[in-house]
Amino acid sequence: MQLDQLKSLVGSVNSRRILDLFGADSNRAQGFSASTGDLLFDYSKTQIDDDIRAALIRLCDKVNLSDRRAAMFAGDKINETEGRAVLHTALRNLDGGPVEVDGQDVMPDVLDTLQRMRVFAEEVRGGTITGTGGSFTDVVNIGIGGSDLGPVMATHALAPYHDGPRLHYVSNVDGAQIADTLRPLDPTRTLVIVASKTFTTIETMTNARTARAWMIDGGGDPAQQFAAVSSAVDKTQAFGIPEARVFGFADWVGGRYSVWGPVGLPVMIAVGSNAFDAFLRGGQAMDLHFQSAEWIENMPVMLALVGVWHRQVIGHTSRAVLPYDQRLVRLPAYFQQLEMESNGKSVAMDGSALTMPSGPVVWGEPGTNGQHAFYQLIHQGTDVIPCEFMVAANGHEPELVHHHHLLLANCLAQSEALMQGRSLDEARARMAEQGLTGAELERQARHRVFSGDRPSTTLIYPQLTPYVLGQIIALYEHRVFVEGVLLGINSFDQWGVELGKELATSLGPIVEGEVSAKGKDGSTAALVGYALRHRD
Ligand SMILES: O=P(O)(O)OC[C@H]1O[C@H](O)[C@H](O)[C@@H](O)[C@@H]1O
After folding, report:
1. What is the ipTM of this complex?
2. Is residue 404 annotated as part of the catalytic site, yes or no?
3. pLDDT (tens digit, 9 = 90+) per residue, 390-419?
4. Which domains can be identified in the chain, with CATH numbers?
5. Which residues are in coiled coils (predicted)?
6. CA of 102 to the centre of ligand 1 (A)
7. Torsions phi, psi for 513 (to 5 deg)
C-alpha cells in the first residue's frame, strides 16, 4: 500500500478541526456518506476531506481491488495458504447464477442443503420431528468461534422474530457452561446441534460427548435428538449422527463467515425459514452493491477506507463498535472474530513482513451502557479511539417509543460531543456560573475540558429486521476483505490460533498429573504445580 502520500496529508489535518469541515462545506454530511438500500453510512465526522478521500480511493486501484473482488466472487483460490476459494457469498446467492469451484457449479449443492435446512427447521418448529418426550422445547447449539458467534449474535439480534423453541449456546469447554445450560432442560425434549466445521475442535467434541451422555441418562435418544453441521461429514457419522441429520458445507466457507449456511441452522429454527431467507437476501443485496457501486459510493469500500485512514495512516490502535441497539449485544464479539482473526496478521500474502500496522483491536458494547462505563476514556483519555456508532430509526416496541427516542438522542449526542468537545474557556464560563473564582475555578475547569475533534462514523438503518441484519453483516465482511486486500494479507486463514491449541494438547497429560512438567518453562511448571497441590 502506498501510504507515503497519505501520511503527508496527515500534517494538513493537524491544523484544523473536523467541525471546520462542516463550516466550509454545507453539504458535507451528504458528500461524506454512502447509502445503499435503506442503510446510510455517515463518515462526515472524520478528518477525511476531498483530497484524503481521493488518495484513499487511489489505493483501491493500486491494489487492483476490482480484480481481487472479482476473483473472490468467481471462486478463485484466494485463500492461498490453505489453497481454498472464499465463497460465503454463494450461500446467499439465492437466485443468482452459477458459481464454479474447480470447474464445478456449487450452487445446486448450496440450494439443496438450504432446502433440507428449511424442511428440518420447519419440522422442528411444527413438532413433526420430536424427542422421546414430545415436541422440542429447547435447542442447544454446541460450537465455538465461527460455529457459535454468528448464530449467537443473530439470535439476539432477531429476538422479535423468535417464535420457535428456546435456543441455548454452549461454546466454552468450561464444564460450568454446559452444566448450567443443561440443568433446567428436559433431555427428552431437547434437540442438540453439534456445529463444527472441522468436527475436531476439542471444546466442541468434549461438550458434544457430555450432552450425549446427559441425554441418554435422562431418557432421550441421541439418534433422534442430535443434528450436526460440518464440512467433515465422515466425522459426523463416526460420532453417530444419522446422515439425514447432517448439514454439510464446503471448505470454501470460512468459520467466521459461515452463519449464512448450515451454521445458521439454530437461527432458522428460532425465526423460521422465511425470516432466515430475508437475512440471506439482505446479505445478497450488499454483495450486489459491493460488486457494482463506484468506490466513492461503495459502502464496504468507504467503511474500509475510513478504517485504513484511522489505523494504518494515523496509527490509532483500536476502534470501538458501539451499537445503540441492545439486540446487537453480541455484535462486538462477532466483529472481534471477523475482523481480528481475519486481519490480525503480520505477514503479507507472499510471506514477507508487513510494513504497516495490521488490523486494529476491535471492541465495544451496546450504548447507552458503554456511556456509563468506558466513554470517559473515549472522551478524555490520551488515546483517540475512532468510534463506529450504529442505530435504528425505529425500535420494535411501539408502546415504548419514548425509550427509542432517548436511545437515538444519546447516540447522536455522543458523536456530536466527540467532534465538538468543550474548550477551556467554555469550561471556565461554566465554573464561573457556579460561583467559582481564581485558582479553584481554573483547576475545576481543566477537568471539564473535552479536546473534541475525535472521529466517529454512524451507520443508521430503518429497523433491525432480518434483511437489515443481513446487510450489516455482509457490509462488515466486505469491509474486512477490502482492508485485507489493501494490506496485502490473506484475510481467510488463522494460523495464529494453532500454537496455543498444540500446547494445550501437550499440557493435557501434565495437568492430568500423568506426565511431569519437566521441560516446561518455570512459570508454566509452577502453575501446574499449584493446580496439582490444590486439587480436591
Ligand atoms: O467450526 P470449528 O471447526 O469447530 O472451528 C471453530 C473455530 O476454531 C478455530 O480455532 C478457529 O480459530 C476459528 O476460526 C473457528 O471458527
Report:
1. 0.97
2. no
3. 999 999 999 999 999 999 999 999 999 999
4. 18-76+293-408+460-489 (3.40.50.10490), 88-277 (3.40.50.10490), 499-533 (1.10.1390)
5. none
6. 25
7. 90, 10
